[in-house]
Write a structure and sequence with these properties.
The structure holds 2 protein chains of 2 kinds.
Chain A (H helix, E strand, L loop, with lengths): L3 E3 L5 E3 L2 H14 L5 H18 L7 H14 L3 H33 L19 H21 L2 H9 L2 E3 L12 E2 L2 H5 L3 E2 L4 E2 L5 H16 L6 E3 L2 H29 L4 H16 L9 H13 L4 H36 L11 E5 L5 H16 L11 E6 L12 H14 L3 E4 L3 H4 L37 E8 H7 L4 H27 L28 H4 L3 E7 L1 H9 L7 H25 L2 E6 L5 H13 L25 H14 L6 E6 L6 H14 L3 E5 L2 E3 L6 E2 L16 E2 H10 L12
Parallel strand pairs in A: 4-7, 7-8, 8-9, 9-10, 11-12, 12-13, 14-15
Antiparallel strand pairs in A: 1-2, 3-11, 5-6, 10-15, 16-17
Helix pairs in contact in A: 1-2, 1-4, 2-3, 3-4, 4-5, 8-9, 8-12, 9-10, 9-12, 9-13, 10-11, 12-13, 13-14, 14-23, 16-17, 16-19, 17-20, 20-22, 22-23
Chain B lengths: L8 E2 L6 E5 L4 E2 L7 H9 L3 E2 L7
Antiparallel strand pairs in B: 2-3
Classes of the chains: A alpha/beta, B alpha+beta.
The complex binds zinc ion (ZN).
Zinc ion (ZN) binds next to loops of chain A.
Chain lengths: 760, 55
């Protein structure tokens, strides 16, 4: 006798056989059935089956539905059963859509980020702010919409079950990942932001300000990061303009003071133009002599004595150098501040900005590099470590790697700043897979990285355009390698079979997404495409679709957890055995080979990326734990190891880690990064720091960085390593310190933050 | 109780900021990291700067 049932939400409610009758009749009616009495007698049978066969007198809704299916089939109503199953699946879908999404919304609304992992999925979005929450509403709703209505069910199932992970699924129908912005091209002749025309910049300050605007504008058209590949080369032009302007002003000032010259500025301007016309010489930073020598003729023509000319030129040189250096530093300081405070995406997120530099050996380019490094070293207003931009210092032999190289001093400085501020990271243009494209002095031939690791260069779509500028990733999808290994039960051949199928599935899915992206129009991306940032988009009109130009971008297969995959297959990972390393290289080498073949066959840039695994590192392992239980070395942590990395908890020398990871850099043409973790303060041992960078270069790493703790006490402003107590003011975390003590400390450390804001 | 709040001190309940790298980029404080990345950071084996010379 059934009196109550358990609903899906756990509530107990009175049992009503009439509901079963009606559900069965509805399914039958859909097939043309009209006999309600059959439905009634079937409902009785369902009830009997539950009580007599299952001895279940308090069934759940699910159990009742299972019983209905069983009874319908056994009683010969197969077609009705089928209809009922369809009806039930449809209801489940709607319910999942409603309850799943609404539950997510409820959590977003009422739970603080500290209790809600969804809100912390991306660490650079503050999920607690109004706009951050709004962004999450949109993103979670979009993900479910895409999963249910846009994806091929095969791809949706593979994603949902954790065989693969389709990244940035909330943007599936909207846009592409990232772009390397050639700001030099963008600035030439000026550009539009959608809210107005901006003239070609005339000074280093405006160059820097517009660089920020370019990043911000483009970030609104894409879901990933934005990078400037030619930061030094492009901004050097701003320094040149600033220097010339300041030189004219200062020479005029000197001539006014020393020789009472009237309308001095106009005269000097005219004179500079005449000198340029006659000799080609212009005032130039750290290369003033040619102009000064040539200008003597024009200056003498103004009736000035040799002595006055000499003194005025010396004055102008001295002041112009100093002021140019000051202006450049201030411009870089403002850029760093801007990139840490400006917002995109409805104010919820700071743009993911990256800048690549290090190889421009011109005096102006060198000044840009030095200034941006020093501004980063100084930190933000209260000495905070800037989070953005990601700096990528390009290492190149003959340019900055050896003591005799022209930018070696800047490499040294980059090490010092990175040892304090975690940036710059280092990219290695001599690694063979980067060196093959390198042409001296041409930044477009230098591989640049998107800060997180993405890399573009090869171009099967248009081999004459193997370049960095104006290109980026379109989308990427990662394969759960440990899952495939667990499925293969230590059978390596079977593993490769499964991997082959999974790669095919991902190729299909990437292409399906590409078709959606390709059908978009230039007007959907007013900056990225409308301003010609993306390669060849300047050849399109506003209503053209993007299919052809997007083919310059990459479609990327990623992977997670090589280490756990190897452990599942042969019991050890690549840090533990040579055999595992060889198998690891076979696996990743196979994936690369498949991408190359696919690229060749389709003339599209399929490539392999060592996935950056922020949101994903926990999801795969959670799902696999449920499926396979806790397997030592595989599912026994809360995360899978990043891409091809040696597990972070494995004891290994920094050198061995670099040596073992380097060969994977050569295979992952869509992007890669290796880290070395340091404890202690690397500023105390800069030689060691530099030796790690050199080791990366010698081992053939493409992109690497060194992690070390950077702590800060916001009360006294101390930056460095803080254990239990602050080395400067002595307080414990959360503990108060006397104002008197802070006043005393301020005498020694005048740059200390203003602690007034902590007094309520 | 007569113990009045001592306004001559600051910093109560103010934590230390601990900046770390997640996947190529930095985050200002680990408060915003998701659970898995927190666990990963916790497990990272650090190499000593003093023994680096041997490289
Ligand atoms: Zn302190």
């Amino acid at each position: 006798m059934i009196q109550t049932i358990v609903k899906r939400d756990g509530r107990t409610v009175p049992y009503d056989r009439g509901r079963i009758e009606r559900a069965i009749f509805k399914a039958a009616a859909a097939l043309g059935g009209t006999d309600e009495s059959i439905a009634a007698s079937l409902a009785v049978k369902v009830e009997e089956y539950l009580t007599d066969n299952l001895h279940n007198t308090k069934p759940s809704v699910e159990q009742i539905q299972d019983a209905v299916e069983k009874v319908l089939i056994e009683e010969g109503h197969a077609r009705t059963a089928k209809e009922y199953i369809l009806y039930r699946a449809g209801r489940t879908r709607v319910r999942e859509m409603n309850t799943g999404l609404m539950k997510t919304y409820e959590d977003l609304t009422f739970k603080a980020a500290v209790d809600n992992d969804v809100k912390r999925e991306n660490a650079n979005i503050d999920g607690d702010t109004a706009m951050g929450t709004m962004l999450k509403y949109g993103s979670e709703g979009a993900k479910q919409f895409v999963e249910m209505f846009m994806l091929d069910p095969k791809h949706a199932e593979a994603h949902k079950s954790g065989d693969i992970h389709i990244h940035d699924m909330d943007f599936y129908t909207l846009t592409t990942t990232c772009c390397q912005i050639d700001i030099d091209k963008l600035f030439t002749g000026g550009f539009c932001t959608g809210h107005g025309f901006l003239r070609e910049p005339g000074s280093i300050q405006t160059y820097a300000a517009l660089a920020c605007i370019a990043i911000q504008s483009n970030q609104n058209d894409q879901h990933g990061g934005q990078s400037i590949p030619n930061f030094d080369y492009a901004l050097a032009k701003g320094v040149k303009k600033t220097y010339r302007k300041l030189y004219v002003k200062n020479l005029a000032k000197a001539l006014e003071a020393y020789a009472d010259l009237e309308d001095a500025e106009d005269k000097v301007k005219a004179l500079a133009a005449a000198v340029k016309e006659r000799t080609g010489a212009v005032p130039a930073y750290l290369n003033q002599a040619p102009f000064d020598e040539a200008a003597k003729e024009e200056l003498a023509a103004l009736g000035l004595s040799e002595d006055t000319i000499k003194r005025a030129q010396a004055f102008a040189l001295r002041h112009t150098e100093k002021e140019t250096e000051r202006d450049t530093y201030q411009a870089m300081e403002a850029l760093v501040h801007n990139l840490n405070t400006m917002h995109s995406r409805a104010g919820a997120q700071i743009p993911f900005s990256s800048i690549n530099y290090g190889t421009d050996t011109s005096p102006e380019g060198r000044l840009v590099i030095r200034s941006v490094l020093l501004a980063t070293d100084a930190g933000l207003g209260n000495g905070e470590t800037p989070i953005f931009p990601i700096h990528i210092f390009k290492i190149k032999e003959g340019v900055n790697y050896n003591p005799e190289d022209p930018n070696y001093d800047l490499f040294k400085l980059a090490c010092r700043v990175s040892a304090k501020r975690l940036f710059p990271n280092f990219s290695f243009l001599d690694s063979p897979f980067n060196a093959q494209y390198y042409k001296p002095g041409d930044p477009n031939s230098e591989v640049a990285y998107m800060g997180c690791r993405t890399r573009v260069m090869a171009n099967v779509y248009d081999p004459s355009r193997e370049q960095t500028f104006g290109r980026g990733n379109l989308s990427f999808t990662s394969i759960n390698l440990p899952r495939l290994a667990l499925k293969s039960h230590h059978n390596v051949d079977f593993f490769f079979e499964l991997l082959a199928n999974e790669i095919d599935l991902v190729f299909d899915q990437l292409y399906a997404r590409f078709k959606i992206q390709a059908a978009k129009h230039v007007y959907n991306y007013p900056f990225l495409m409308g301003q010609g940032i993306w390669l060849d988009s300047d050849k399109l009109g506003p209503t053209d679709t993007l299919e052809e130009v997007l083919k310059h971008g990459t479609l990327t297969v990623g992977f997670i957890g090589l280490a756990e995959c190897l452990t599942a297959l042969i019991g050890v990972h690549h840090g533990q055995s040579e055999q595992a390393q060889n198998l690891g290289l076979d696996i990743i080498g196979y994936m690369r080979k498949r991408c190359d073949e696919k690229a060749k066959e389709t003339k599209m840039n399929y490539s392999l990326i060592a996935t950056p695994a922020e949101g994903l590192s926990g999801r795969f392992v959670r799902l696999d734990k449920k499926k396979y239980g806790i397997i030592p070395g595989v599912t026994d942590k809360e995360y899978y190891t990043n891409s091809f990395h040696i597990p972070v908890g494995f004891e290994i020398s920094a050198y061995d880690k670099i040596r073992l990871e380097a060969p994977y850099h050569a295979l992952t043409n869509g992007g890669h990064i290796s880290y070395v973790e340091l404890d202690g303060d690397p500023l105390q041992n800069l030689d060691a720091f530099e030796s790690i960078v050199r080791c990366m270069k010698e081992c053939g790493i493409g992109y690497g960085s060194i992690n070390h703790p950077v702590d800060r006490d916001p009360v006294c402003g101390y930056v460095g390593i803080i254990g239990d107590t602050c080395p400067r003011c002595g307080r414990h975390e959360g503990e108060a310190v006397s104002i008197e003590k802070l006043r005393e400390l301020k005498k020694t450390y005048p740059g200390m933050p203003d602690y007034e804001c902590y007094i309520h | 109780m007569t113990a009045k709040k001592n306004v001559e001190t600051v910093g109560e309940n103010v934590g230390f900021e601990r900046i770390r790298r997640i996947t190529g980029y930095l985050v200002g404080t680990m408060d915003r990291w998701n659970n898995a990345k927190r666990a990963e950071e916790h497990d990272r084996v650090k190499h000593s700067t003093s023994t680096m010379e041997q490289l």
